[in-house]
Design a protein that fits this description.
mainly alpha, 2 helices
Amino acid sequence: METLVLIAALILATGIGMLLIHLLNAQHEARITAHHYSDPLPRPPRQSDDTSRRAHRAHADR
């Protein structure tokens, strides 16, 4: 009888732990969704094609 009570207590504790983790994950996801991040930084202007690595590599092969 004691074994059945122990098993039931373990199953109940596991279920409560799973519920708690689920609620905490949902709360964390709501916080992330509500947070407004700043705009991304603009990309630096690209250099012309003749100064790219691809162009340097093509000239090195010749």
